[in-house]
Hints:
Elements: H1 2-14, E1 21-33, E2 46-60, E3 66-77, E4 89-102, E5 105-110, H2 115-119, E6 141-151, E7 154-163, E8 168-180, E9 183-190, E10 207-216, E11 219-228, E12 233-244, E13 247-256, E14 261-270, E15 273-280, E16 286-294, E17 297-304, E18 309-319, E19 322-331, E20 349-357
Antiparallel strand pairs: 1-2, 1-20, 2-3, 3-4, 4-5, 5-6, 6-7, 7-8, 8-9, 9-10, 10-11, 11-12, 12-13, 13-14, 14-15, 15-16, 16-17, 17-18, 18-19, 19-20
Amino acid sequence: xxxxxxxxxxxxxxxxxxxxxxxxxxxxxxxxxDTVAAGGGDNNEGFYIDGDLNISLSQELxxxxxxxxxxxxDFADDDSGAGNSIGNIDIDASDVVLSLVAxxxxxxxxDTGTAxxxxxxxxxxxxxxxxxEGLDFDAGVDAVLRGDFGFGGMSASVSYLISDDLxxxxxxxxxxxxxxxxxxxxxxxxxETALADGSGDFSASEVFxxxxxxxxxxxxxSFGYASNETAGTDSIGVGVSYPVGPVTISASYVSExxxxxxxxxxxYADGPISIDxxxxxxxxWGIEGSYDLGNGVMIYAGLDDAGDDTxxxxxxxxxxxxxxxxxxxxxxxxDNGDDEIGAGDYQEGITLELGFSF
Length: 358
């Protein structure tokens, strides 16, 4: 309801703007799935329909500032638990962002990212860089207010969380990134807050991080440090990525207060074939690939989650933004609570789906 009220308020604010630029985009999906997710995820069973309409309005003011509003209208089956009902559709307004932009300077309010998230670049799997990402109604975060600034090849941001029914400002967040003499740097900081932890998008802790990336003898090398001051933990990471013909080899190692984290990856791309191999210290490995048959047909296959997730899928591009998907996916250890298997986030079981985008 808060999202809908915010969208309605924004629309009224633009009602009197003359010659405002308006753009629309969106997508719609009609599909069928034959299996309930073994992990208890929020999957579809039987026929289902969903879609979204993205609306963007902007108006250049007399002083050169561009005022804008962007929001999304979602519609989907109202699934009460026993299958879906095509005739019972839920409609919700979300992702509402109001903005005032002039060149490299901008002010944003609504469902947008924090300053730290806008600039932070992690190095490997760092445990101590848990920055708040944005809205979290469970934690009482109703909106984000963020300002962006650009100067001398660098960009900076400052933001606050807006809580308690849009009346209080919480958790200062800062971000800075850019290029310094061939070295790309990233800095992020967020203050501690008394708000209670909600979902994974929010952290009440004081956190800061610093990372740098450069190129040495053809290899991209990264160094990073993150600290959760509230929890008293640190992460020190180093990463390297090196291309060898059609293969890119990547590796990272992160020293942690508890168990250290490391990741190794191989990516191959040549002509119609693409293959990705990933692994880490917890024996969680995956092999995923695709093959372009031409004429709009793509084949996808993979083993993920140490081989416990498997899938085979094919898509056919019908042209004009329309496509058909056929997939079969299996979650043998029933740990995929979101029913999103592999790089394509496939649903468990057999799925046949017709999609449109515009």
